[in-house]
Amino acid sequence: MKIDKVLNEIDEMGDAHAGSSAETPIRKDAFEVSDTDKIALIRENVEHIMQTLGLDLSDDSLKGTPQRVAKMFVNEIFSGLDPKRKPKASVFDNKYKYGEMLVEKNITVYSTCEHHLLPIVGKAHVAYISKGTVVGLSKMNRIVDYYAKRPQVQERMTMQIVQELQKVLGTDDVACVVDAKHLCVNSRGIRDIESSTVTSEFGGAFKQKEVRREFLDYIKLDTTF
Ligand SMILES: Nc1nc2c(ncn2[C@@H]2O[C@H](COP(=O)(O)OP(=O)(O)OP(=O)(O)O)[C@@H](O)[C@H]2O)c(=O)[nH]1
Ligand SMILES: [Zn+2]
């Protein structure tokens, strides 16, 4: 497929990384390579890394690793680099005229730190106030997961989640808080197992102190059922 056509399609899909400030740095030619070719290329490179480390790739337990890692990169942990995999967010009219904020909290986040390619594990909390449109609850979890499935910095991921929901819902009144542990901080380097990172993005009405407070109070609710 021609690169111009692919880029047009991405633009039409309204992807957050099509010119926004929270853009993931993806090369323009990234879409010229098929997933199958990407897996084959990554497999070769992982093989190379393992060989360089001195590992014996004829060992039963190791021989499948390069292919396994390549498949995992393309189809799982970095699958959110492919705009075709962006979840379709079904929206509905707010017929019941629900006028308060809706909070989807404790959304599990599994992402990957783009500096070390180590896991980021945590929770995202998302809220919005409807301007006439509501979104299926699970779509918020799916949007979080889509942006998490990229090499990420937490600040950018938080902004991307908010910008996407603003687009889907047609309102600025969207907020997101992420609290996550970075294994690059917890398990290596400074090796501080206790620390976690909190990031937030407050759009529209959520910039007001009392609206923001209400959202943060809901997050603190003990949800033990
Ligand atoms: N702002 C931000 N920084 C991150 C994130 N994930 C990892 N980092 C940091 O990125 C920085 C990379 O710093 P470098 O000094 O280049 O890497 P390094 O030598 O491995 O650093 P140390 O982790 O301190 O050993 C580290 O301080 C990481 O903690 C993130 O989501 N946001
Ligand atoms: Zn890191």
Automatic annotation (TrEMBL):
Entry's Gene Ontology BP terms: one-carbon metabolic process; tetrahydrobiopterin biosynthetic process; tetrahydrofolate biosynthetic process
Gene3D superfamilies in alphabetical order: 1.10.286.10, 3.30.1130.10
Give binding positions for Zn(2+).
113, 116, 184
Q: What is its EC number?
A: 3.5.4.16
Reactions this protein catalyses: GTP + H2O = 7,8-dihydroneopterin 3'-triphosphate + formate + H(+)
Q: Which Pfam families would you find in this protein's record?
A: GTP_cyclohydroI
* Biochemical pathway: Cofactor biosynthesis; 7,8-dihydroneopterin triphosphate biosynthesis; 7,8-dihydroneopterin triphosphate from GTP: step 1/1
Domain GTP cyclohydrolase I residue range list: 42-219
Write out the GO cellular component annotations: cytoplasm
**Leading EC class:** hydrolase
Cite the InterPro entries for this sequence.
GTP-CH-I_C/QueF (IPR043133), GTP-CH-I_N (IPR043134), GTP_CycHdrlase_I (IPR001474), GTP_CycHdrlase_I_CS (IPR018234), GTP_CycHdrlase_I_dom (IPR020602)
PROSITE patterns given in the database record: GTP_CYCLOHYDROL_1_1, GTP_CYCLOHYDROL_1_2
One example GO MF annotation: GTP cyclohydrolase I activity
Statement: the UniProt record of this protein carries the keyword Disulfide bond: no
Query: Could you tell me the keywords of this UniProt record?
Result: GTP-binding, Hydrolase, Metal-binding, Nucleotide-binding, One-carbon metabolism, Zinc
Q: Which NCBIfam families match?
A: folE (TIGR00063), PRK09347.1-1 (NF006824), PRK09347.1-2 (NF006825), PRK09347.1-3 (NF006826)
Q: Which family does it belong to?
A: Belongs to the GTP cyclohydrolase I family.
Subunit-structure text: Homopolymer.
Q: What is this protein called?
A: GTP cyclohydrolase 1
